[in-house]
Amino acid sequence: MGTDMKITRTETTPVQPRLQPDTPPQPAPAKARAPAAADTGISQEAQSLTLARRELAGAADVDLAKVEQIRSAIAEGRMPLDLDALAKAVVEMHRP
Q1: What pLDDT is attached to residue 76?
Q2: Which of 27, 36, 60, 79 gets the highest tally of CB atoms within 10 A of its CB?
Q3: Residues in contact with 24: Cβ distance below 8 Å, sequence separation at least 6, in sequence order
């Protein structure tokens, strides 16, 4: 038999709805002067965020293999399920 699995309570961060669709950042217009140090920092941060957004766009929202593993463990009785704790977690997650 495989290892037993257990669901434990963890803190969650509520997901906020997106009000506007993401739009790719537009290139900044060329400047006649050299950028100041602060401008360079913002540009590097924007580039990092753009790269991260692209990487996340290609990632799956849910690990379906992990979902199937958990389903099997619950169905086979290898994962004890505390329904009271689960219900409380769902209520807490949806509180405004």
Answers
A1: 93
A2: 79
A3: 50
